[in-house]
Amino acid sequence: MDAPQSKSRDLDKLLLRSGNLVGPGFFPGTDLRDDIREYVRVLVVGAGGLGCELLKDLALSGFRNLDVIDMDCIEVTNLNRQFLFRLEDVGKPKAEVAAKRVMERVSGVEIVPHYSRIEDKELEFYNDFNIIALGLDSIEARRYINGVACGFLEYNEDDTPKSETIKPMVDGGTEGFKGHARVIVPGVTPCFECTIWLFPPQVKFPLCTLAETPRNAAHCIEYAHLIKWHEVHGGKSFDPDVPEHMKWVYDEAVKRAELFGIPGVTYSLTQGVVKNIIPAIASTNAIISAACALETLKIVSGCSKTLANYLTYNGGEGLHTKVTEFERDKECLVCGPGILIELDTSITLQKFIDMLEEHPKLLLSKASVKHGKNSLYMQAPPVLEEMHRPNLSKSLYDLMGRVEKDTVHVFGTALKNEEKQSSLTKLRIVFKEVDGVADMDTAILRVSSKRKTPL
Amino acid sequence: MSEPKTKYDRQLRIWGEVGQAALEEASICLLNCGPTGSEALKNLVLGGVGSITIVDGSKVEIGDLGNNFMVDEKSVGESKAKTVCAFLQELNDSVKAKFIEESPDALILSNPCFFSNFTLVIATQLVGDSVVKLDRICREANVKLVFARSYGLAGFVRVSVKEHTIVDSKPDHFLDDLRLNNPWPELKSFVETIDLNVSDPVAHKHIPYVVILVKMADEWTQSHSGNLPSTREEKKEFKDFVKSKMISMDEDNYKEAIEAAFKVFAPRGISSEIQQISNDTCAEPTSTSSDFWVMVAALKEFVSNEGDGEAPLEGSIPDMTSSTEHYINLQKIYLAKAEADFLVMEERVRNILKNIGRDPSSISKPTIKSFCKNARKLKVCRYRMVEEEFNNPSVTEIQKCLADEDYSGAMGFYILLRAVDRFAANYNKFPGQFDGGMDEDISRLKTTALSLLTDLGCNGSVLPDDLINEMCRFGASELHVVAAFLGGIASQEAIKLVTKQFIPMLGTYIFNGIDHKSQLLTL
């Protein structure tokens, strides 16, 4: 009686039917559904609590070409939430087991695992994906991927982002009953760096508390971990994954606590403090990943409007979700276009540095200049200054490898609101061809504008 | 060592051994194991719940392969309950997993007693009447109930329990119990032994702020007819007064004192919420009173007598700049008072138990101790029956939300989720469920929704056409990502209800997957 059912019976309702509350450029139909299956590639970064859920969610949302990258191996403490892993998998690489398990259950999906550090991949690796979904547990890792994705971004003359260079990301994070999910479209929404102030600084105990006036168990533990370890073990670095190391710290913490009459040092607390263990449960990870995967589907297909742009979640005290629309920092060093500076190819590095001081938007004195990974000139320390000094008389165009345009970072002292401040700024250098040999002193420095106005 | 415990390490750090034990004793019943139910149960199985029973009469279809991780190609044609059960069992073999191949709607009608066997029931994708009937059954049997429904990019989760009392509520932000505005004799004596004006600068900056503030508050009251600072000017003056004692800019203890000065101005006594709980009718103990209410009765007595308006002292103090010696001594003083308050509370509890004809030792010391520690954070959650809400929702709330930009999507979906069930009852299908006749379905849904609004007493209210269109577009689909989200929430609520820690949601959570402006609605 029933016609042969489609496997994507439920998804089809969103992808094959037109709607009113949809994204721009949404063309419902089997082509869309099939294109997503065939061509769209999604990278899942992390195969832990969020990553496992993301792989499942994406595989069951019409995506067929997934990659997953994770440098860790499975541990017993993962098993309360990383549902793709079993006891016998302990010790194996997370990415590989996760990929295998999802492929076993969802036929037709291809998942390529990468058991490696995210830093070890070529930048072009990341450029192969339509969208990147992050299931990470550290700020540093997020910053790294954000830098990579935003690095692909190029801008038009009018400071609008070039759409074909935009690499969207969806980022999730959880802790206990709390979490967040956010959409990052470089050049459009704030990137991770634009809103770095959202993340509270890590709790660090003052050294004098640890050394002189400990008051609680955590102080005793960190004393053993950060101070006593080095006193006794010299150069040997502390490895929290080595049980003997952890036990040593625990024993020392107990001794110190007894000395000061402080209660509460337990082995569990010791591990928690030293490893900065974040409590984690399956439900929060499931919720946040689902939100991220839903946004991934929407961004790729346009089948509905997208989250704009940050969702916070708290499920411990009742249930609270909130959407905040954060704004981009136009001067963001990572995703911003950088201040446009047009130069003649003949201008020397010295002249360039001199001009930064007079540039109305910069007023930057004692500038050090960096081009990608190369330092072109450093004001300090003296050894490095001397080393880079010969560059000053060379042309900037040559030093930058004779490219027509590129990004340069300058660091120095800027005058902001009549106050001197250290400042790191991103500049977009564009070289204009000059006829004949120009006098270096009359090299023209222009502020971004369509008119050519001599100084 | 006990490797199961290592497995649960990351969650033990949240709800402790006591919470874990409660989970491991719980028996959960799931109705319908489509993705919404399966995902909810997955999270509970991973967490080590005692036992699960899946009730679902359907067979695995090809379409299920596209939204349910727990079924695979081999299982097409087989019982969905059996298939999902087998998958979940494999996730955690310390959970007892069973299944019953029967339609939940039929079971609700034929065997209501079935549900009394469980600690908690998670009812997913139930439609209309079954919801109301199940709610009555579970209310009667005193079984906790969580509803969840995924519908396209919309859905909801709702808890339904007659009364859920919480001692260990673990609120995110709660003021410490330092009693700077009402120090007791032993604290005062201790403070007196410390001289703020000590000459040694190191000692000067290692006097804990508790001591500083108690001393200075005392000085202030002496020169202000026994009153603490109350006006804005007085509060500023007090802070300046504290600041004047600093002998150098790097005295963290004084900086902390200035920041914590507001604790001196805070009102004394118990909060209005605790007051309300104490005055609740259930706080009049009878032989059938739960342990919670017996202890509340004792609390009420304590507050009126030994407490002199205050609850038992919580007993812990936050970390603060201080010499180790001062800090440890201060800690001991707080612990001693907390212990003394506990002993009084214990006595009162035992007396009340005697008076209501119960064994005086039937409430354990640790239970009473925990109650004392959490006395200021108690919570009582009571939920309206679904039937009541359906027949008599808060009209003002509905109208207000429909008119508010951030709430109109969620409230629109709330109405439409009910309207589609009405539609289904009338037309034997959900709007947009099949590909033909979309326009007709849209106009019928609109009519149904408007008549529902009228029945609820919201005659003037309108639902945006775009939302009605979307609802038809969804065609009663169960998308995996929405199911995983709502299943996640349902499982989280179940955990809070079973462990009796943290605070369950109070209201109906409406999921709005279009812009994520989901809301918790109390109707």
Summarize the structure in words.
The complex is a heterodimer of chains A (455) and B (523). In chain A, 32% of the residues lie in helices and 20% in strands. Chain A has 455 residues and is of the alpha/beta class. Chain A has an eight-stranded mixed β-sheet with strand order 3-2-1-4-5-6-7-8, sandwiched between helices. Chain B has 22 helices and ten strands. Helix content of chain B is 50%, strand content 9%. In chain B, α10 (232-243) runs antiparallel to α11 (252-260) and α19 packs across α20. Chain B is of the alpha/beta class and 523 residues long. Chains A and B meet through α1, α3, α11 and β8 of A and α1, α2, α3, α15 and α21 of B. Chain A: This is NEDD8-activating enzyme E1 catalytic subunit. Chain A: The active site is at residue 208. Chain A: Keywords: ATP-binding, Ligase, Nucleotide-binding, Ubl conjugation pathway. Chain A: One of its GO terms (molecular function) is ATP binding.
Give the overall shape of chain A, derived from the CA principal axes. Answer: globular
Regarding quaternary structure, what we see is heterodimer
Q: How does the helix and strand content of chain B classify structurally?
A: alpha/beta
Based on Cα principal axes, name the global outline of chain B.
elongated
Q: What is the gyration radius of chain B calculated from CA atoms?
A: 28 Å
Strand content of chain B: 5-15%
Percent of residues of chain A in helical segments?
Answer: 25-40%
**Which radius of gyration of chain A do the C-alpha atoms yield?**
27 Å
Proportion in helices of chain B: 40-55%
Low-confidence runs of chain A (pLDDT<50, min 5 residues)? 435-455
Largest β-sheet summary of chain B: 8 strands, mixed
SS elements, strand count of chain B = 10
How many helices of chain A does DSSP assign?
14
What order do the helices and strands come in, and which of them pair?
The complex is a heterodimer of chains A (455) and B (523).
Chain A: H1 11-15, H2 30-39, E1 41-45, H3 49-59, E2 65-69, H4 94-105, E3 110-114, H5 123-127, E4 131-135, H6 139-151, E5 169-175, E6 178-184, H7 207-211, H8 217-233, H9 243-260, H10 267-274, H11 282-301, E7 310-314, E8 320-324, E9 339-344, H12 349-358, E10 364-371, E11 374-377, H13 382-388, H14 396-399, E12 405-416, E13 419-432, E14 446-447
Chain B: H1 3-7, H2 9-25, E1 27-31, H3 35-46, E2 51-55, H4 80-91, E3 96-100, H5 104-110, E4 120-124, H6 129-141, E5 144-151, E6 154-160, E7 164-166, H7 185-192, H8 201-204, H9 209-222, H10 232-243, H11 252-260, H12 262-265, H13 272-279, H14 291-304, H15 324-355, H16 365-373, E8 379-381, H17 386-391, H18 395-402, H19 408-427, H20 438-455, H21 465-474, H22 480-499, E9 508-512, E10 519-521
Parallel strand pairs in B: 1-2, 1-4, 2-3, 4-5
Antiparallel strand pairs in B: 5-6, 6-9, 7-8, 9-10
Helix pairs in contact in B: 3-4, 3-22, 5-6, 7-9, 9-11, 10-11, 14-15, 15-16, 19-20, 20-21
